[in-house]
Amino acid sequence: MTDAPMPASLPHDGTDAEARPVFAEERRILGLAASTWPGILAPLAIGILALLGWEAIVRIKDIPHYVLPGPLLIAKTLVLDWETLSGSLWITLRITFAALVAAVTLGVALAILFTQSKWLEKSLFPYAVVLQVTPVVSIAPLIIIWVGDINLSLLICAWLVAFFPILSNTILGLNSADHNLVNLFQLYRASRSQTLRHLRLPAALPYFLAGLKISGGLALIGAVVAEFVAGSGGSASGLAYRILESGYQLRIPRMFAALIMISASGIAIFLITSWIAHLFLRRWHESAIRREN
Question: Is the pTM of this model over 0.90?
Fold first, then answer.
């Protein structure tokens, strides 16, 4: 008895490789996916229309420049006073980034310490909450008096504002590790340091990065508020003092130019921290994975 001959081809239901839908690669324009351009162009168009309307109202109403300058005059002032304003911007940004680095370093370290010792967390975390809910503008004069050094005082004030989101978000992330995986690590007798390194820290990364985006802007706000309270003049002064100085001298276009530089710096900090978060999460976290639908 011989085996029956095998059929030349197996029947199929039309779902083989040739019949499966193939997603076409998304078209790119100037290096960016075509779907990202509406999110860029729409806010840009609204901003341009707002600036044109602003300029038109100032010209039609003939509003004095010391009351409300137009965008063109502000841009001209920004160019003419760039040397002074850019130096002040660098001082403000230096305090901002130093405070953010200090907030990240101490916040992450304390978060790890708190999650390793619940007794320590219950003892010290309420004081972190007290620092968060106390307005920095109310304690900045005391810090300036006690510390003495104006730059260190500004750094401490900015750090106080930026510290809590890093601490609270990192604690939440470290405690959000899957309990089933925690039990698995315990089953295989992993040490606390191994569990922290291979399970809790990766689980906390999205939460930490979310806190980083919040703290970046708060560090800038804290630095500007502390500069307002300090009111220190001279060549080594930040943008907040330039705003006060312009107000005293009724140089309102210069005041607006300094405000625009602060706002642009905040937007840049947010974009940088968002890019860092996307860089770390794009390959594995649900919030950053690109989907076809």
Answer: no
